[in-house]
Amino acid sequence: MKQIVCLATSPWHPIPTRKQQVMGRLTDCEILYFDPSISYLAPLRDKSAKAKLRAYKGPEEAIRPGLTVCALPPVLPFFNKFRWINRLNQRRMARFIRKKMKAHGFDRPVLWVYSPVTVDLVDHVPHSALVYDCVDRHSAYGGLMNPAVVDAMELELAGKCDQVFATAQPLAERLETANPHTAFIPNGANFSRFYEASKAQLCPEDLKSIPQPILGFVGALQPCIAYDFVAHAAKAHPEWSFVFIGGEKPGADLGQLKQLKNCYFLGLKPNEQLPQYMAQFAVCLNLFAAGDLSKDVSPLKFYEYLATGKPIVSTPQPDQVLQFRDLIHIAPTAEDFVSCCIDAIREHDTDLREGRLEAGRRSSWDARVAQMREILTARGVF
Fold this sequence. Notes:
The protein has helices spanning about 20-25, 40-45, 85-105, 145-160, 170-175, 190-195, 225-235, 255-260, 275-280, 290-295, 300-310, 335-345, 350-360, 365-380, and strands at about 1-5, 30-35, 60-65, 65-70, 110-115, 130-135, 165, 180-185, 215-220, 240-245, 265, 285, 310-315, 330. By secondary structure, it is of the alpha/beta class. Strands 3-4-2-1-5-6-7-8 form an eight-stranded mixed sheet, sandwiched between helices. Strands 11-10-9-12-13-14 form a six-stranded parallel sheet, sandwiched between helices. It comes from Candidatus Avoscillospira stercorigallinarum.
């Protein structure tokens, strides 16, 4: 059986992202999935993070036979600013990973990584092949980092790989300069799950008192969301209800929306419950604001929206959504957003609905992972 060590940038719980969707479908592989480290500074920003500092000393979790989730030790801060700190961190991580590999009988697995910082780890962990799956322009996140350092680490990492994947075309084009074996594989959707939202579902309790039509957003409430578009529409149409499902990220400016009576924030919901909520939406919203981060993102929520068949109103970001322009409503400005919402609410075109469902089916995680398998087999990695 093939062995994979996956160094993820998202913990396995609670939100299934690309990492979990891909690893969960490689059922013919034995996998050690490592949740990302947290910084020793993390508890200063979030007191609940204090317990996570010791998570690596706790028990592992068996997700299924052959797929085990482990936590990594905490790291020194400023590793995205100073390469020497990253080297210290990653060598410590490598020692920890080698011990886990030995305990699980891993010899020379495929090393599958998601972060530029692992460039200083990969030479210290025995592996048969190296795969980098790039899901973001990591240097665009800001915070305690030097973008030039992060970009340099990423290109160096790509150059060491047997295969590179990227979720957005601009990411793939940049990484291809370091490694010609780079493939553009966008994000996808758990089609069978989100297709359930195209059918009648019981209305969740916290939606029952919210008036229709509901224009819904599902996903992390990040700074890169066009909240001003929603504020403009919510003021112009107080009879519409705007529902947000997802956790709030630091830096997200929600103050204006929280003052509006027709904006509702329901918080994070278990992924398996999302179809019940989305079944009540009249319109699904994809709301990335213009910017470096939005340009290169591959929005999970967008492909999940397609799988519901429901009308979608989207900003023109990221570029990936433009290939679906015939199936959705695209709003470059706040005024356009209002008119697009009106058109979407009134939409009763079954051909558009079927077109979105078919696009969602073609964008399923099963299809994406099949593409990856084919490429890795051709490259001799699998």
